[in-house]
Amino acid sequence: MYIVIEGQDATGKDTQAAMLANYFRKKGKKVVHYAESGTGSKDPFVTKVADLAYGSPQDTKHRARALLFLVNRYHQWRKLAEPALEKGDVVIITRYWFSTLIYEGYGGGVNRPLIERLHQEVMPAPYFHPTKIIIFTLSDADRETRLLAQGKRKSEVFKSMNSDFQKKLNQSYLEVAKDFNVPTMDTAGTPEEVHQRLLKLFKL
Q1: What are the residues whose beta carbons fall under 8 Å from the beta carbon of 159, sequence distance 6 or more?
Q2: How many domains does the chain have?
Q3: Which residues are CB-neighbours of 156 under 8 A, at least 6 positions away?
Q4: CB atoms within 10 A of CB 24
Q5: pLDDT digit string (tens) for 150-188?
Q6: How far apart are CA 93 and CA 61, in angstroms?
Q7: Which domain covers residue 76, as residue numbers?
Q8: Domain with 162 in it: what CATH number?
Q9: Which pLDDT score, from 0 to 100, does residue 170 have?
Q10: pLDDT attached to residue 125
């Protein structure tokens, strides 16, 4: 089973991915889960690329960032996801190529057909066919509260943008969900409440 959890910053993707991984492990399944962005990775290569993508000056061209994220996306898919899926394990990924489409395309002005074409050329076909996929949503007020609690890191380009820009990204996610026929789920509430809603939506 291959699961994708997508959504804007502070919607709880990593928390829910970890809870979902534990859910499957309790059922005796082997699970691989990781963030496509490379954050939290123990792979030196992935970490270095993530540092370049997130820690680069804010005037770095968004095309360059799109390519950096694609490098980590491809590397982790081939190294982690493919072998796990071949063995019949569960793979849970937070973020997806939609993140680059949203943040670098809608947000950074990179040509969106170019982003899609690059991913179609580089990523293996199975990548585009998750068993289950969801886009997390959250109200502007709740998201802002969570971002403040996390501490907006100025080195992360979009987390340091103002609330109007965050709203623009949120609207872009809704457009992408509609365009690609992907279900959305509001993640307001406690982690356990959200987890239960996710299990119900995924029919697990």
Answers
A1: 9, 147, 150, 152, 153
A2: 1
A3: 54
A4: 18
A5: 765 444 545 555 567 778 888 999 999 999 999 999 999
A6: 26
A7: 2-202
A8: 3.40.50.300
A9: 87
A10: 97
Residue with tokens 């100025």: 154
**Residue 153 confidence (pLDDT):** 47
Q: Based on C-alpha coordinates, what's the Rg of the chain?
A: 16
pLDDT tens digits, residue range 73-83?
999 999 999 99
DSSP, residue by residue, the chain: -EEEEEESTTS-HHHHHHHHHHHHHHTT--EEEEETT-TT---HHHHHHHHHHHHS-TTS-HHHHHHHHHHHHHHHIIIIIHHHHHTT-EEEEE--HHHHIIIIIIIT---HHHHHHHHHHHS-GGGG--SEEEEEE--HHHHHHHHHHH---TTSTTTTS-HHHHHHHHHHHHHHHHHTT--EEE--S-HHHHHHHHHHHHT-
